[in-house]
Design goal:
With 308 residues, the chain is of the alpha/beta class. Helix content is 31%, strand content 18%. The chain has an 8-stranded parallel β-sheet. It has a 4-stranded antiparallel β-sheet with strand order 5-6-14-11, with no helix packed on it. Helix 4 (149-162) packs parallel to helix 5, helix 5 crosses helix 6 (226-239) and helix 7 (253-261) crosses helix 9. It binds succinic acid. Succinic acid binds next to loops.
């Protein structure tokens, strides 16, 4: 037997104990319900749902997806059902699950984030919040907040005050010093930090002589960004004393192990789920096999083991 469990919020009064370090990345796994017929999603460490806003959103104009070499550009624009429908329709389902569900929240103003946090506080079925200050595809808010330490800290402080739930903050790579942003967020009371969200990018349709995405720019995810994400996780894990959750191009167990050895306490599988819906479970099983083969009894023995 190997122990895969990890404590994601050691400074939080209730903590957030995951059975294992494999989470799904927001926006790539719907509300979890969509994947239930494909594999036993209860085996995962946690599910993070699509970015949720105060009001429902239709998202950006089509086209909103473009494949790139080793990656995927998206400009979804936070299409989602809105917080009221989430509380009414999704949370009661989650309340019957034993896998924790974390709600990713996104807003245009600090007040949006605090209202979302307040409304979700105490709702059965919700185990934590992931504060999305990193979406590159909306006109106001999102990544604007995550681009500098002061605004990132302001949102974190406000959310921290508005909820008793564990607070994760998801960072953008589209900033000059992600470690400084991470430190500011940690000092403002975040329980854990997840990174990275997508890298801002674009594609051009040469036949039409125009940008391919309806929103002109989008966010790049997938294997193409893995080395960048890993580097940033390594930097951030060296800067903060709260758990770091690695995300960005993780497709296999060995990808996940790189992030864990680089300092991540947990990881999120995102774009990989689009080509292999079982990817999160495959990653989990691969980590377990690696530990058995290497005689590692507890996942904590691997966290940060490659750090110099
Ligand atoms: C989107 O909905 O545009 C992507 C969400 C995100 O990057 O946080």
């Amino acid at each position: 037997m190997v122990n895969l469990s990890i404590q994601l919020a050691p400074k939080h009064p209730r903590g957030l104990l995951l059975a294992n370090p494999v989470m799904t990345a927001s926006g790539t796994f719907g509300y979890g319900t969509e994947y239930g017929h494909l594999f036993d999603i209860q085996k995962l460490g946690a599910i993070v749902c699509k970015g949720t806003t105060l009001e429902p959103r239709d998202g950006n104009p089509q086209p909103r997806l473009a494949e790139t070499a080793g990656g995927l550009l998206n400009s979804i624009g936070l299409e989602n059902i809105g917080v009221n429908a989430l509380i009414k329709e999704k949370a009661p389902i989650w309340a019957s699950w034993h896998v924790p569900v974390i709600v990713n929240i996104a807003g245009e103003t600090v007040g949006d984030y605090t209202r979302l946090a307040g409304q979700l506080d105490g709702v059965a079925g919700i185990s934590g919040l992931e504060v999305n200050i990193s979406c590159p595809n909306i006109k106001a808010g999102g990544a604007e907040f995550g681009a500098n330490p002061d605004s990132a800290a302001e949102v974190t402080t406000a959310v921290r005050k508005a909820t008793s739930l564990p607070v994760l903050v998801k960072l953008t790579p589209n900033t000059s010093d992600i470690a400084r942003v991470a430190l500011a967020v940690a000092e403002a009371g975040a329980d854990a930090i997840s990174l990275i969200n997508t890298l801002k990018g674009m594609a051009i349709d040469i036949a039409k002589r125009s940008p391919l995405l309806g929103n002109i720019t989008g966010g790049l995810s997938g294997p193409a960004i893995k080395p960048v994400a890993l580097y940033m996780v390594y930097e951030v894990a060296g800067a903060v004393d709260i758990p770091v959750i690695g995300c960005g191009g993780i497709t296999t167990a060995s990808d996940a192990l790189e992030f864990i050895m680089g300092g991540a306490s947990a990881i999120q599988v995102g774009t990989a789920s689009f080509s292999n819906p079982r990817a999160p479970l495959d990653v989990l099983e691969g980590i377990e096999q690696f530990m058995k083969k290497e005689g590692i009894k507890d996942i904590s023995e691997l966290v940060g083991v490659a750090r110099i």
